[in-house]
Structures are given as structure tokens and as C-alpha cells.
Design a protein that fits this description.
Alpha-Beta Plaits; 93 residues; four-stranded antiparallel β-sheet; alpha+beta; single chain
Length: 93
């Protein structure tokens, strides 16, 4: 299984609307990128306000999903003013 983690760093003046992200943005992600599942970590302490995790069956499925992700990318200004960091990982059980 492949995991795409999108991390939203904290900084002075950074904003992040967790409610919008969880409801409206993830609906767009489900509809367009089509991950198997997703999870959200709401930052309590540490360098990130939030981290979104999208899970895919394979790298091919991730690449296909990201190819359809224009609407999700265009939605970013609706919930944050920061540039995210992205990591792709293999999930090891």
C-alpha cells in the first residue's frame, strides 16, 4: 500500500480551516483523486497544523489519482495560506 502525506507547516501568520478541509476539501479528494481511504492528523504540538494521509493500492493508482487532482489543488486557498510539504511512503504493516 502507498501513502501520500500532505503536511501543512505552522508559521507566523499561517492559517488552516480544519472543518473545511475535513468536509468540503476531502469530498473533492474522494471524488477526483479516489484514494482507498484517507486520514487527518490535527496538529497538537509539533511543526504541522495538520497532515492529510491518502492511501492507494499502488503507485499506479496514486499517479492516476494525482493526474485527476486539478480541482483539489485549486481548492487549497479555501482552507490554508501555506505551501504544503508532501511525502510518498510505502506502508509497512
Amino acid at each position: 500500500m502507498i501513502k501520500l502525506s500532505v503536511m501543512y507547516p505552522k508559521s507566523e501568520g499561517s492559517t488552516f480551516d480544519l472543518d473545511y478541509y475535513q468536509t468540503a476539501h476531502m469530498e473533492i479528494v474522494d471524488r477526483t483523486i479516489k484514494p482507498l481511504k484517507w486520514e487527518i492528523d490535527a496538529g497538537v504540538d509539533g511543526p504541522y497544523m495538520a497532515i492529510g494521509h491518502l492511501f492507494f493500492e499502488s503507485m499506479d493508482a496514486l499517479q492516476a489519482g494525482m493526474g485527476a487532482g486539478e480541482e483539489a489543488l485549486a481548492d487549497l486557498p479555501n482552507f490554508t495560506n501555506v505551501e504544503s510539504a508532501v511525502q510518498i511512503s510505502t506502508v509497512i504493516d
